[in-house]
TrEMBL record:
This is Lipoprotein. It comes from Kineococcus radiotolerans (strain ATCC BAA-149 / DSM 14245 / SRS30216). Keywords: Plasmid.
Length: 149
């Protein structure tokens, strides 16, 4: 009886050892695994809160946002070099209205989406991202700076 109990209690340890031994190295970890390390964990505490996120991305501490108007669409010729990539898509995991987006966070862009400079514009004012086959411009949020004078 005691041996059966010991063997049964070892099942989770053996399963974990097999899973770890068969996992891929860090360099080839899937995007989902990497995001699990970086993205906030869904709280699940109060999912009655609904947040209607503005489409945004945070690059170098600046929050950029867009709308889906025709004026936010860019041609491929207007897109410059890669300046960042999305590290966490928060729309489905953050239910805290006090959450402050961090470097690499985006509301709707998938993890790994490359963020580009916009030709003829400073990266401090505009960036671009390919979203559902459309290049879209994201404008820097200057509201806080304007309010502060």
């Amino acid at each position: 009886m005691r041996i059966k109990h010991v063997v049964r209690s070892l099942y989770p340890v053996v399963a974990l050892a097999v899973a770890v031994g068969c996992s891929t190295p860090d360099e080839s970890r899937s995007t989902r695994d990497w995001a699990a390390d970086y993205c906030p964990q869904p709280s699940g505490e109060d999912q009655t809160v609904a947040i209607d996120w503005v489409p945004f991305v945070v690059v170098d501490g600046v929050t950029y946002s867009t709308d889906y108007s025709p004026g936010s669409v860019l041609s491929e010729e207007q897109v410059g070099d890669v300046v960042a990539s999305v590290r966490c898509r928060i729309k489905d995991i953050v239910f805290d209205p006090e959450f402050v987006p961090r470097e690499g966070d985006a509301a709707y862009l998938p993890i790994g989406t490359e963020v580009h400079a916009v030709a003829g514009s400073s990266v401090t004012t505009r960036v671009a991202a390919l979203e559902d086959g459309t290049w879209r411009v994201y404008e820097a949020d200057r509201g806080a700076a304007e309010v502060g004078g």
